[in-house]
């Protein structure tokens, strides 16, 4: 039995249109979280995020994944949050959306058209009870991501001050 080897005469070309760095959409200075009393979607209990705590932990990110509506499946990951900092009394960062999936491309279109502008940070924190004020206060904040929210009136962001643009 004879083995035949074939040589391809047409070179394989990759379509790099959507994965080159120049195609990444960047939204600078997005407001991720501001001081205030916010409740999470699980406990629905108010926790106060002070400017002192947010200033201290604004750069404490263990993951910087940007996703859609807190959905963790792979096609809902649309980018990253970079250059996180406390500025103008807010935790802000730059959103890098990589248009390599249809979800990411659709999100860019919706943001640019003004239909989507809300964010929701994903974090873990120690809640410390302030007995004199009868409220829980966030401390030891660890940010683990952020979600672009679809903007449905039934699901507003916990922090009403967030914005992409």
**Topology order in helix (H) and strand (E) letters:** EEEHEEEHEE
| Main sheet specs | 8 strands, mixed
Net shape: globular
Strand portion: 35-45%
> Taking all residues together, what is the mean pLDDT?
87
Which features characterize this protein?
41% strand, mainly beta, 8 strands, 165 residues
Quick rundown:
With 165 residues, the chain is mainly beta. It is built from two helices and eight strands. Helices cover 11% and strands 41% of the residues.
Blueprint (SSEs and pairs):
Blueprint: E1 25-33, E2 36-39, E3 46-49, H1 51-57, E4 65-68, E5 77-87, E6 90-97, H2 102-112, E7 118-130, E8 135-149
Parallel strand pairs: 3-8, 4-8
Antiparallel strand pairs: 1-6, 2-3, 4-5, 5-6, 7-8
Overview of the molecule:
The chain is globular. Strands 1, 2, 3, 4, 5, 6, 7 and 8 form an eight-stranded mixed sheet that branches. The chain is mostly beta strands and 165 residues long. It has one domain. The protein contains two helices and eight strands; from the N terminus they run βββαβββαββ. The chain has helices at 51-57, 102-112; strands spanning 25-33, 36-39, 46-49, 65-68, 77-87, 90-97, 118-130, 135-149.
């Amino acid at each position: 039995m004879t083995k035949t080897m074939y040589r391809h005469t047409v070179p394989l070309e990759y379509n790099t249109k959507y994965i080159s760095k120049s195609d990444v959409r960047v939204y600078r200075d997005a407001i991720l979280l501001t001081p205030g009393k916010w409740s999470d979607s699980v406990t629905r209990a108010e926790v106060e995020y002070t400017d002192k705590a947010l200033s201290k932990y604004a750069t404490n990110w263990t993951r910087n994944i940007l996703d859609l509506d807190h959905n963790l499946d792979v096609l809902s990951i649309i980018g990253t949050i970079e250059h996180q900092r406390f500025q103008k009394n807010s935790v802000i960062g730059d959103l890098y959306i990589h248009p390599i999936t249809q979800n990411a491309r659709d999100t860019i279109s919706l943001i640019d058209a003004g239909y989507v502008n809300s964010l929701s940070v994903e974090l873990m924190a120690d809640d410390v009870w302030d007995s004199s004020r009868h409220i829980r206060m966030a401390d030891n904040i660890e940010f683990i991501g952020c979600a672009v929210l679809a903007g449905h009136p039934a699901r507003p962001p916990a922090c009403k001050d967030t914005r992409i643009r």
